[in-house]
């Protein structure tokens, strides 16, 4: 994309072209002025010596026109310079906002008691609308959230900051995902009246015994793959902050060693829908390649690649939605 100054230079062209254009314009103006003067003299049947003022008038009009064009060009160039400066300031603000947003995303530990983890995010633009957070509780459990804010850009980034604060505050009040989701939803609605809102999965992971308690707040279903088949993580309630007085109910799933689960945002599911694989098929393909005891990071990156390949002609660079994957595997790190 050209900057405003580059556009001005493109319009102005190279110096020799501008010189040729100026000379050509001068010759055309002279010939046109002479023709108009002759036509006027003939029309009024005047004497050339008595109508010398016509030449002065033509010259005056020409000078006025050239002066106006020169001043207009100067003003246009100044406006372009101002716009360029404003764009530089905006780019810097967006860069800082993107850095602040990235700083809000925690480093998820690759291993916690009884679980292995990986998370990856591919934002569609500088400022994304996806969010995740991870808190290890004093009880030995872990509480995680994966969310997608409605809308994009700076407004979504502002909500992400609030969402992080709310999640960490209510996580310390109690580890119940339903209570956490209920409190977050009420606080978001009180502050924003339903616009924007956030779809999310709030989940608690317990090690003894291995168990998952979760709330799906209008989010794409999570997938839990095990030897007996797949379990969809889809129970919960409406998106966070969308409705006043929203209530949530948590569902529980007993986990087995070597279970693998994946939580994604709709940027992944919609991208996969454009390709040959569903999320379940892409996850099973990753498990076949890396095994249930493989690295969650490898599974995570495999799903991101499958989503990028599913975009086809659209291309990953032109995709307008963030793509985030959180993978967890039950059991200790294999030796």
Keywords:
disordered N terminus, elongated, Phosphatase 2c, domain 1, 2 domains, six-stranded mixed beta sheet, single chain, 12 strands, 335 residues, 8 helices, alpha+beta, six-stranded antiparallel beta sheet
| CATH architectural name of the largest domain | 4-Layer Sandwich
- Mean pLDDT, nearest integer? 78
Instruction: Supply the helix-strand structural class.
Output: alpha+beta
What's the total helix number? 8
Strand content: 15-25%
Question: Which stretches of 5+ consecutive residues score pLDDT under 50?
Answer: 1-14
* Global outline: elongated
Largest sheet: 6 strands, antiparallel
The CATH superfamily of the largest domain appears as PPM-type phosphatase domain
Q: Helix share of residues?
A: 40-55%
Strand order, main sheet: write it out. Answer: 1-2-12-11-7-8
**Subunit organisation of the chains:** single chain
Strand segment tally: 12
CATH T-level fold name of the largest domain: Phosphatase 2c, domain 1
What does it look like?
With 335 residues, the chain is an alpha+beta fold. The chain has two domains: 97 residues; 225 residues, Phosphatase 2c, domain 1, CATH 3.60.40. Helix content is 49%, strand content 21%. It contains eight helices and twelve strands. Strands 1-2-12-11-7-8 form a six-stranded antiparallel beta sheet. Strands 3, 4, 5, 6, 9 and 10 form a six-stranded mixed beta sheet that branches. Strand 1 and strand 2 form a beta hairpin. The chain starts with a helix and ends in a 5-residue tail after the last strand.
